[in-house]
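TA notes, week 10

Several of you asked for a full example with nothing omitted. So below is the full record: structure tokens for the whole chain, then the designed sequence directly under it. When grading your own attempts, check the secondary structure regions first.
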């Protein structure tokens, strides 16, 4: 089984931005976006960030709340973002925020939007209980053709990594609810707005001490790469590649940064690379000193020769 080292790619400029980076997403051959979900433990806001991979310069766009995800749209400089309990369009040219869906998870209190995925049918995203205690957060389909919000589940704790396999009205969703420590599979009927869960997990991490967080598909669609958030005081963090049969196929280590949040594969001139975001969320000043790379973005070599499809969100007419 290959074990890959990683190297530091980018250190966010401020401690606020290092608190909880997530969601790296390729924009073009030279840049990717990422979100700082929250600018500190008590902060009510976060930011969208655009990192130039050639110059390693970062543009920060402060947002009017805490973002769970951000995906580029088919309009220049525009992103669809899940923010608090709203879906909206953020324009990086003028800083405008246009809401397209309000009062998400309105049947409960104490939840906000967390991770999501975009595909040709629209968006699938989940929410998290801010106390990480109750099975009350929703999993949603925002259906593109009729702009309808459909709740698929109402029993998640911290909805995280998501992968869509297939196209059209029937797709497969691989989904992580982090405290439950499994990857589960749903058959999604987009036309009817339903999710049918398979009885057995795709991969089961319940015997381990770490929590699965962000997730992407491998380029061939036959496996996944999972970031692991380790709350313990350990030297390195991990991302792991698994087949859909549950076999461990590769590991990437992040030195002095144990809380790995999200993976992404990108093309670079010297091959396909893995980007990993990490966080220093919850660390004491002493832990931050020991884990001096916490909150940074890492890059690593891979054995892949292609990258998975990373679609843009169709914002026409919104």
């Amino acid at each position: 089984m290959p074990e890959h080292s990683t190297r530091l790619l980018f250190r966010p400029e401020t401690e606020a931005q290092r608190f909880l980076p997530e969601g790296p997403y390729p924009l073009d051959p030279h840049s990717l976006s990422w979100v700082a979900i929250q600018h500190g433990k008590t902060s009510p806001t976060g930011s969208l960030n655009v990192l130039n991979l050639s110059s390693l310069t970062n543009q920060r766009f402060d947002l009017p709340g805490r973002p769970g995800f951000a995906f580029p749209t088919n309009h220049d400089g525009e992103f669809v973002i899940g923010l608090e309990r709203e879906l909206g369009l953020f324009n990086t040219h003028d800083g405008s925020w246009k809401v397209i869906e309000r009062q998400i998870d309105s049947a409960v209190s104490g939840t906000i939007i967390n991770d999501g995925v975009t595909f040709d049918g629209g968006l699938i995203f989940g929410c998290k209980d801010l106390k990480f205690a109750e099975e009350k957060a929703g999993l949603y389909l925002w259906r593109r053709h009729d702009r309808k919000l459909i709740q698929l589940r109402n029993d998640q704790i911290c909805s995280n990594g998501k992968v869509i396999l297939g196209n059209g009205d029937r797709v497969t969703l691989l989904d992580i609810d982090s405290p439950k420590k499994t990857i589960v599979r749903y058959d999604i009927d987009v036309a009817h707005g339903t999710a049918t869960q398979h009885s057995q997990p795709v991969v089961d991490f319940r015997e381990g001490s770490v929590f699965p967080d962000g997730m992407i598909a491998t380029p061939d669609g036959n496996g996944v790469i999972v970031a692991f958030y380790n709350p313990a005081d350990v030297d390195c963090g991990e991302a792991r590649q698994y087949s859909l049969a549950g076999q461990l196929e590769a590991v990437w280590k992040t030195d002095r940064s144990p809380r790995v949040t999200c993976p992404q594969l990108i093309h670079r001139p010297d091959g396909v690379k893995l980007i990993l975001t990490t966080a220093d969320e919850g660390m004491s000043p002493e832990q931050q000193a020991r884990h001096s790379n916490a909150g940074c973005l890492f890059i690593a070599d891979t054995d892949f020769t292609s990258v998975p499809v990373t679609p843009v969100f169709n914002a026409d007419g919104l």
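The first helix runs from residue 15 to 18. Use that as a sanity check on your answer.
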